[in-house]
Amino acid sequence: MPLKEFIPENIWNNMPNKYCTVQQAFNNPMSVQLQTATRYCPRHLLSQFLTTNGTKDTWIWCPTANGIFSTKYVRSLLAPANSQQWTVLWSPHIPLKWSVLLWHLILNSIPVDETVKEKGVPLTSKCSCCPQPQEESTLHLFFRSDTANQVWLELSHLLHFSNKEVSAVTDGVMDFLVRPKIIATTGCLVRCTFMAALWEIWCSRNKARFQDQKMTAKHIINRTMLSIRAICISFKFKKVPQPWLAALHQTENGKENLKSITPSIVRWIMPPSGRLKLNVDGAFMMTTGRAGGGGILRDHEGNMCWAFAQAYHDLNSSLAAEAMALNDGLSICYSKGVSEILVETDSLNLLQLVTKQISSQWDLTCIMHDIAAKTLNLKAEIVHAPREANRVADCLASSSMSCPRLVIWSSWADLPTTVKDPYHLDKVGDPSIKS
Ligand SMILES: [Zn+2]
User: Fold this and answer.
1) In this structure, are residues 109 and 119 in contact, taking their beta carbons and an 8 Å threshold?
2) What is the rounded CA–CA span in Å between residue 277 and residue 342?
3) Residue 323 and residue 202: Cα distance in Å, rounded?
4) E strand or H helix at 230
5) Tens digits of per-residue pLDDT, 199-247?
């Protein structure tokens, strides 16, 4: 609040030069404004919040870390706590159409017969989901019909969900979504499957209604599991639990395989003759906060020109470690006069940052700026390589935690023991298995 609030009205009315900046009022210890303030305003306010360091007065929006006002932040302050639950609907793993459908479900705006009737359109309702048709409501179609019963029964061992317990659609859907996640992958799969099943029920109903195709639970379940397989593959879910693997394989029709569990063979590819390749990698341990990076420059025969490793401090993400390692690698190239290099990183995020496909976090702005300048200067070409094809840099990064200062090796014989093996394997073109 303004300091004026603490000053009695008659004093305020008689005060000269009221409309001045904080700087003007507080720079002179004898100013009438400062004298009045110290007399009437709480001391801690003056000592804690007022500084006069010669800069211009600015507005600070305290709730944010950067002090910048945004209407978005005000909205989050004003929104009731439960509206945060909407966030469970949206996730990069979840196709937008599923999220939108569930959003409509929660708002009760899916155009089933009952909802259409409620809007004043007269019609005779006959559901498409049961042998003995009943009136079609959202609750009936998604949770009560014969088809829905079969779908949820079939999925109950995966979802631990009983459609019979749903008495109102909005609450039923919301309750399911805000259930605490058990473990990351399972929680995600459970939520995705629930949403996919609802989506397929809706699609199946529309096909029955408008294209005269029969609604069957089997078809709905198959399509649901196919979508989940696609999500597992495209987001490379690790450690898919056994019941899920079994369910996903059951629906397999022989054409596709779960790529995440099919091993493939990758190897480090030597650069073309006359060019050099730099492989870099960062390491970051969330638990201890320790971080480091390393890299190696090799010629077209896989011979090492040099390698480096260095521990980093005060980083907060593996992405930051990856960026630092890339920057260090480029710096060394620069200092040694090497240019037109090929660069490989196994961090897709970093590559997307470098190629500006995604925008930079504010705390990485400086280093990304540095990297961009060096890349241009060195005419470096940065590409992505699978982690298994980047194993020397990976080992260098892991060993970097014990290198408090930058270490550069110029002979392979001096490399740490853990790095020599993968170095030799790369040199003879030995492949590794990518699972
Ligand atoms: Zn029905």
Assistant:
1) no
2) 5
3) 45
4) helix 217-234
5) 999 999 999 999 988 999 999 999 999 999 888 888 877 778 888 888 8
Q: What is the pLDDT of residue 257?
A: 44
Amino acid (1-letter code) at residue 266: V
Domain boundaries of the chain, sorted by first residue: 3-58, 86-261, 277-434
Q: How far is the CA of 159 from the centre of ligand 1 (A)?
A: 23
Give the burial class of 265: count Cβ atoms within 10 A of its Cβ; 0-12 exposed, 13-18 middle, 19 or more buried.
exposed
Identify residue 418 by its one-letter amino acid code: T
How far apart are the C-alpha atoms of 143 and 152, rounded to whole Å?
A: 8
Q: Check: CB of residue 123 under 8 Å from CB of residue 114.
A: no
| More confident call, 181 vs 336 | 336
Q: Which residues pair with 91 in a beta bridge?
A: none
Query: What's the pLDDT tens digit per position in 100-113?
Result: 999 999 988 999 99
Torsion of Cα atoms, 188 then 194 then 195 then 196, to 10°: 100
Is 3.30.420.10 the CATH number for 277-434? yes
Cα of 210 vs centre of ligand 1, distance in Å, is 16
CA 134 to ligand 1 center in whole angstroms: 5
Q: How far is CA 8 from the centre of its chain?
A: 53
Separation of CA 32 and ligand 1 centre (Å): 81
CB neighbours of residue 17 within 10 Å:
10
Pairing assessment for the beta strands 342-345 and 381-384 based on DSSP bridges: parallel
